[in-house]
Design a protein that fits this description.
The chain has 247 residues and is an alpha+beta fold. The protein is built from seven helices and seven strands; from the N terminus they run E-E-H-H-H-H-E-E-E-H-H-E-E-H. The chain has a five-stranded mixed β-sheet, sandwiched between helices. A two-stranded antiparallel sheet has the order 1-2.
Length: 247
């Protein structure tokens, strides 16, 4: 998803201050870290660069997101990263997965790729985010996210919970121009099989409530980490001999 070129910013006391994105906030949760370590080890043993492989996957994801957005709005495909032959194959397969879903469901967009911000409060960091889709799926107002990963984990629900918070915090927009979702949804577009996997959860369910509570905790942990890191960097001497009674 695109984000503002200068990052997410909010105004505090007349100054523009950068705040983390939703993905940075939920990085406080280490879910799936061992799997990533195993993946990185496997790449290293094969002589491949983790950063390079992540960039390759990200470029495919960017291309697929652009295709989906273009199809949703019925417009021409815009600028996408330059892809090699294998990336083109993967992107086409994932794009075909969305076509299959789109042909069997009624998809009506309201707004896509919208960036919003939320100010901090006493214990929780401010943050920003850009969600993929807000509109109607089969007549139900839906906040949706498109994924091209091999599998989706619970962390995706934390991400969608963050987007729900952004909509809540920008009530002046939702009251005037934005529809409020009744459900959140993840659309995993398989790059190998071209098969769509759609999952949805109604607002008010136990799963959505848990995700929203989890995202709140991530915001608090992000603030705590910032405070503790500042405490370490600002302390010139970490050992005051006089306080310990030493001469």
């Amino acid at each position: 998803m695109p984000r503002p070129s200068n990052g997410y910013q909010i105004e505090i006391d007349g100054n523009m201050v950068n705040v983390p994105g939703v993905s940075s906030v939920i990085s406080q949760v280490g879910w799936g870290a061992k799997g990533l370590q195993r993946w990185a080890h496997k790449l290293g043993m094969a002589g491949l660069s983790v950063d390079s492989e992540m960039r390759i996957a990200a470029d495919v994801g960017t291309a697929v997101h652009e295709f989906v957005d273009a199809r949703v709005w019925g417009r021409a495909i815009g600028l996408i990263p330059k892809l090699n032959e294998e990336q083109v194959r993967l992107a086409r397969s994932a794009a075909s997965a969305w076509v299959k879903f789109d042909k069997t469901h009624e998809v009506k967009p309201h707004i896509t790729e919208l960036s919003l911000t939320c100010p901090p409060d006493r214990t929780k960091t401010g943050f920003g985010g850009t969600f993929d889709f807000l509109g109607w799926i089969d007549g139900v107002p839906t906040l949706g996210d498109f994924k091209t990963s091999k599998k989706c984990y619970g962390k995706v629900l934390l991400q969608l919970a963050g987007y729900l918070d952004l909509l809540d915090q920008n009530s002046e927009l939702t009251a005037v121009s934005l529809c409020m979702p009744e459900q959140i949804a993840v659309f995993r577009l398989d790059k190998e099989s071209g098969t769509p996997e759609a999952m949805r959860w109604r607002l008010g369910t136990q799963e959505v409530a848990a995700a929203r509570r989890g995202f709140d905790l991530c915001r608090e942990l992000y603030t705590i980490e910032s405070v503790l890191n500042k405490a370490m960097t600002k302390t010139k001497s970490r050992w005051d001999r006089k306080e310990l009674g030493d001469e």
